[in-house]
Each structure stands twice: as structure tokens, then as C-alpha cells.
Amino acid sequence: MIDALAIDTTSDYLSLAVLRAGEPAGSHYALCGTAIARTILHEIEALLRGAGVAPEALDVLFVACGPGSFTGTRIGMSVALTLGRVLGRPVLGVDALSILAAQTDPDLGETFHVLLNCVRDEVYHAPFRRRDNEVEALAPIRLTTAAQAAAEIGQAPCLVRRFETAQPGIDAQAGLGPLTGLKRAPLRHAQPNALRLLAVGLPRYLARPGGPFETPTPVYLKSEAFRTWRPAREAQR
């Protein structure tokens, strides 16, 4: 039976979950903002202690690797990779949109779309489907605008996630008006917490528990996409 720790710091929420003998044994989900760096190690220690799982007993760690908060993603990945190195355990990365997709109802039989806002009218977008109760991405995550995504999605169901923000003066919903009329996918789970990270990551680990596993890297689409996407968008104005 598997003992595992899941870490997600890709938004202003610190989200953790622990698996003991293959069953969820505890979770933490709290809006922390910039306090994530100061609280993450304490919360991990408290969560493992409350679940009765010693760090040395962990078989695998799962970490959300973005897209999302640049600083938050780095914090979570640094902690996960350091723990994995110290404990000699594998670390598996899961992208943020797959975690969001795992919120949907398992009975959803058609292709659905996941949208995560970036800033202003920009969104991360990928289509998904469910197969054997697992979520599967049908295309790579890409950066686009809310209007372009809405036009492409049409009447297909979608899940829209808007970043919460603990920073005063920043409107996380600005520019996302085109998304308001989209058909919403039915959800089984209200929050994209680290339990959903476990739901996506664990089957991937069990498919090849002996590895090898690639070292996860952060998904920083914005910096890469701007080389081609921003100039093309400016040319349309």
C-alpha cells in the first residue's frame, strides 16, 4: 500500500494532502498568499504527524508544476524536490489544468475544456476527456485570450478557474467577460485541492512504480509563449 504526499502551491492557496496505505489520511487547503514560503514546511510536518505518516515512510511525492503563480510554483517544487532528494523518493509532477480537470464528474462522457486565468484577459486552455475514471489531456496547454478560447469552445462544457488573489488592487476577473456564457462542466469536487493532485498522480505512479521518473520541471508557458503569441497579438491590433 502506498504512502504519499501531494504539494500544490501554484495559486495563492497552500494545498497539501497525504495518502496512508493507499487511502486519503488528511489534507490542508488555505488561502496564504505570500505567506506560503513561511508556512509550508510547518504545515507539511503537522499534516504528516496528524496522519501518522513518518517522512521516511513516504513512497512517492506529487507536486503541481503549473502553470500558475511563478513564485508559488517554485516554492512548492523546491520543497518537493528537496524532500525527494533527502528521502531518496521519486517526485512526480502534475500540471495545474489536469488537477482542475479532476474536479469534474466522472460520468462526464464528452470532451470538456479547462480554462485557468493568467492576467487580464489571458487564459491557459486545454481540452480533456475522461477515460476509465481518469482525466486525459487531448492537446498541450496553451496560452490564449478569453475571447479566443470562448470562440473555440462553443457549446462544449468547460471548467473555468479564476485565481484568487491576496494582493490588494489586483482584479483576478478583469477581462474574463467572454467566459461568463460558456456551458459549465458538472463537478464532483468543489475545490482543486491536493486530493485532486493525488487522484491524477497516483495512477501514473502505479502504472510504473519502479520508474524511472523524469524530474518534474515547472510549466512556465507565459515566458515561452510571449516569443510568438504576443507579437502576433499586437499585429492584430
Give the tags.
237 residues; alpha/beta; 5-stranded mixed beta sheet; 10 strands; 31% helix; disordered C terminus
Describe this structure in words.
The protein is α/β, with parallel strands linked by helices and 237 residues long. It has a domain at 4-97 and 190-220: Nucleotidyltransferase, domain 5, CATH 3.30.420. Helix content is 31%, strand content 25%. It has helices at residues 36-51, 70-87, 96-101, 146-153, 194-206, 221-225, 229-236; strands at 4-8, 13-20, 23-31, 60-64, 91-94, 112-117, 122-131, 134-137, 142-145, 158-161. A 5-stranded mixed sheet has the order 3-2-1-4-5, with helices on both faces. α1 (36-51) packs across α2. The radius of gyration is 18 Å and the shape is globular. It starts with a strand and ends with a helix. Mean pLDDT is 88; it is low at 166-172 and 225-237.
